[in-house]
Amino acid sequence: MKFSSRQPEPAGMQLAPMIDIVFLLLIFFIVTWQFTRSETELNVSVPTAEEGAELNRPKGEIIINVLPDETIRVEGISVNLPQLLDKLAAIAKQYENQPVRIRGDGKVPYQRIVEVIDTCQKAGIWNISFATQRPAPAE
Fold first, then answer.
1. Is the pLDDT reported for residue 48 higher than 90?
2. pTM above 0.90?
3. 88-92: long-range contacts at Cβ-Cβ below 8 A with a sequence spacing of 24 or more?
């Protein structure tokens, strides 16, 4: 009796599923990168502070940018104080203890920041924090 020693041909590697996974990962990282970019897309130079809490952003935090020309921007849209009040009041009705982070440029007059804080409080938002950056290390 003669046995044949024929080995089956090796199965080829399927590339389609691997390409699908790579594209899904690529899409995921591009989308999440766009969300994190929304805060830093503006040219706001926040003040420096030696002490401060580490960046631990709560989920759903609203970021209010106050530019050097005193323009207020929320979610990439320029708003005035009444529009900001309407937007924040609508959000505060839906979400209790809504967190807000104010990113005011270091050159903005303090009065403008106080106006933004006052608008937040009129809308019923009390969970307010301020963005700062650590000073550059001395060389």
1. no
2. no
3. 88/62, 88/119, 88/120, 88/123, 88/124, 88/125, 89/122, 89/123, 89/124, 91/62, 91/123, 91/125, 92/123, 92/124, 92/125
